[in-house]
Each structure stands twice: as C-alpha cells, then as structure tokens.
Write a structure and sequence with these properties.
Elements lengths: L6 H7 L26 H15 L3 H17 L5 H17 L3
Helix pairs in contact: 2-3, 2-4, 3-4
C-alpha cells in the first residue's frame, strides 16, 4: 500500500499540457487548432494553417485537408456554405497532391 500515490502527487508528475487527441490532430503541444469547414472563410483559414504546416509535415497537412473536406461533404445538416468550403478544400488538395 506504500506504493500508492495521492491524486496531488499524480498531478505533479503529469505533463503540463495533457495529450489532446482527435481524428485530425496530433496530440500535445503541436496540435493543430483553428481549422474548420463551416464556410469559405473557415476553409480559407484552414488552408492558411495547413500551408504553413505542409513544409514541416506534408502528410499531416493533407490529412487535415481531406478530413475537413469529407466532414463538409458528409455533414448531417450540410449547408450551401459547407459545400463552398468543400470545394475550396478540394482545390487545395488537388493543387498539392504528390504523384
């Protein structure tokens, strides 16, 4: 029973930035935030973010773009703005594909 830690001890040993996990983000401090697909403005902001990311991690950038496009295309309450966002994301994907 001496090996048991108090909750406070456990918290002190954990990392300052807890792991954040998602379908399209890497865990931890390097997680990509601010992406979206609700309209053209959100899609353009996403493209700005992934354009910077693609220089360091192309696969992750492409994964984010395809995830956002797929979510916009398959959303249960899809709007015309989401369709516009999907087109913008598709254009970026096609322009940045590697053969």
């Amino acid at each position: 029973m001496k090996n048991l830690k108090t909750f406070d001890q456990f918290l002190l040993e954990t990392k300052e930035d807890p792991l954040e996990q998602g379908l399209f983000s890497k865990p931890g401090k390097g997680a990509v935030k601010g992406t979206g697909y609700k309209d053209a403005a959100a899609a353009n902001k996403t493209i700005e973010i992934i354009d910077k990311l693609k220089k360091k991690d192309f696969k992750h950038a492409m994964s984010i773009a395809t995830t956002m496009e797929n979510r916009a295309n398959t959303h249960a309450n899809q709007t015309p703005e989401m369709r516009d966002a999907a087109k913008i994301l598709r254009k970026w994907i096609d322009a940045n594909k590697r053969s």
